[in-house]
Amino acid sequence: MHPADLSASGSFAPPPAAPRFGVNYTPSERWFHHWLDFDLDSVRADLDSVAALGLDHIRVFALWPYFQPDRALIRPRAVEQLGALVDTAAERGLDVNVDGLQGHLSSFDFLPAWTRTWHRRNLFTDPDLVHGQAAYLRTLAAALADRPNFLGMTLGNEINQFSTGPHPDPDRATEGQIDAWLERMLAACEAGAPGRIHLHAEYDATWYQDDQPFTPAQAARHGAVTAVHSWVFNGTAQRHGPTGVPTEHHAAYLIELSKAWADDPHRPVWLQEVGAPAPLIPPGHAAAFTEATVAHALDCPGLWGVTWWCSHDVSRDLADFPELEYGLGLLTNDRRPKDTARALARAARAPRPAPAPRTTALAVPSDLRARSRCAPGGPVYDAFFRLVAVGARPTAVLATRAHDPAHLAARGITEVVHPDQVLTPHGRRGGART
């Protein structure tokens, strides 16, 4: 999808003819702390190694405290360096999505001092703080707006983790307050760079956690595309092992689950983060997991693209990361491709026909307090994967839309089944046909 396909209102166009393939860029030297000692030659070498895989885009993380250390100070030099990185990517044929509000990365929180401790204010509701965030996002977007390879802004990385438990110091907000915050932040991005692909992205608690104020409806209705982040350390790999059907299809499940909440039946979905976390996915199986995960995601109609986590390993010179974070890169710190990189490169090169519609839909509850039914071990989750295990290609539909002929027809759904029709001793009993 070219940015010109988007209207100034931020509405979205159909997904590209072929899904995009990219990677979340983690610098090989100094990780995201490279912004403190920015070395464009090192970035060039990193992006050469990414481009050699045949990928077409990267997702870049501008660490918020380094870019906006004071509410009234957005560092011009940092913004200039971000522009240089985007230009360097363009020289290598790579488009760039930029995350603004970091936010949370690899188990660490990165929030400016003017939001915490003695200056503690709510990230989502304090008027001054919200104004500062909007100014920051607008500034980054405007600085990149004239670059053809700038895809657009993501508000921040999994910022929903700040909104409730298990975060130890959450910035609590209501669903309505989060709605207003999302609208304000996306409008700021649109004001800075009209017509680009501006979106927000949360971790899977949005879909699975009953008390999350970031909701599935927000994920599927705000912004240009729906983003999902698939990590099988959420109980999936623990329950089903590295080769289990739910493990290999978890990304596809989230893609299809998200469609239940979309108002537009053809809204694109971006698999914006997915990776092979050791030891749940043993290093020797990581390439096979990558191949299976990507293949099943590509079998989902309306997929915008796949963006793997991540480009380069975290250096062992850095301390205090969880062990799994050090080895998630497609490439080593000296920029050598691993088997996972080769698997993703093969998928990016392979021609693929557009997937057929998924005609069987599993009904999912619209009650936000029932989201845990869709989580690992829940009846929706279990029913979905039982269908997959017998060869079906299910999607999802809200139970409140299960008898809406126009909605079902627009999505190509001809049969709706309910979890209790699947999870019986005798297997699937059949569903309501449209």
UniProtKB/TrEMBL annotation:
It comes from the Bacteria. This is Cellulase family glycosylhydrolase.
